[in-house]
Amino acid sequence: MEPIRTCVGCRQRDSMKHLLKIVSMDQSFVLDQQRKLAGRGAWVHEQCLQLALDRKGLVRALGDSNSESLETWLRNQAQNMADTQ
Ligand SMILES: [Zn+2]
Fold this sequence. Notes:
Blueprint: E1 4-6, E2 13-15, E3 20-25, E4 28-31, E5 41-44, H1 49-54, H2 57-62, H3 67-84
Antiparallel strand pairs: 1-2, 3-4, 3-5
The structure holds zinc ion.
């Protein structure tokens, strides 16, 4: 059995390997590509990043009251991912 996590965007459960892990760390956020970082994390499909922001699911999951910085960070991440594809 593969580990299952819930996407904070669409709320669907899925295998960890289909989800990105975002970890809140030192007032910032890290995209945990190895999925090995400790700390408070949120799982989200790459295509659900915007949805997760809109629904505040990420903010809730990461416990960050500064949603603006999270949004900025995420936009950059999404942009980076789009650039590399
Ligand atoms: Zn999703």
